[in-house]
Amino acid sequence: MKRSVCRSLAVLFVLFSLPWHLGAADVVLNNAPAHVFFSPGGGATKAIVRQIGEATREVLMQAYLFTSKPVQAALIRARKRGVEVEVILDGYEQKEHKHVTARVLRAGGVNVRLDNRHACAHNKLIIIDRRTVITGSFNFTYAAEDKNAENLLIIASEHLAALYTDNYLKHRKHSRKF
Predict the structure, then answer these.
(1) Which of 25, 103, 134, 142 could staple 126 via S-S, CB 3.0–4.6 A?
(2) What is the CATH number of the domain that holds 130?
(3) Is 122 assigned a catalytic role?
């Protein structure tokens, strides 16, 4: 186990060291297919929207900054298809932005929670059907896609999704419903 974790970390280090202009890349991490995206302009938002569009049961999301209208719309469409969708947002950051994203999502039927326990609830992740994890430095914003140097990793792994889901559920317990 230790060797495979070290090997995975080494692969991730190499992947995230690649120049941003390489755009998207497909790799395999310990037999788990992964897709890597770099911004600006690397297609991360489209990849996120596509993954949410493929959800059949559940989408769990934690976000620090979240203003991306395409991602908001994809979550609301998933909810309207009958997918359970829940989002935990940083409570302080949302307050600064007057809860705009939280209101839009809630109006679309999405279960929204606010995490105020931490100085910064800085997670940036989406768990799709407890099989796929989307994570990286990528905030769910226009700037992350078109202006910032960011990275996004989509990994199809039930084992990794279980670890992220456990952590998500811990944060859900102390987050308040919006």
Answers:
(1) 134
(2) 3.30.870.10
(3) yes
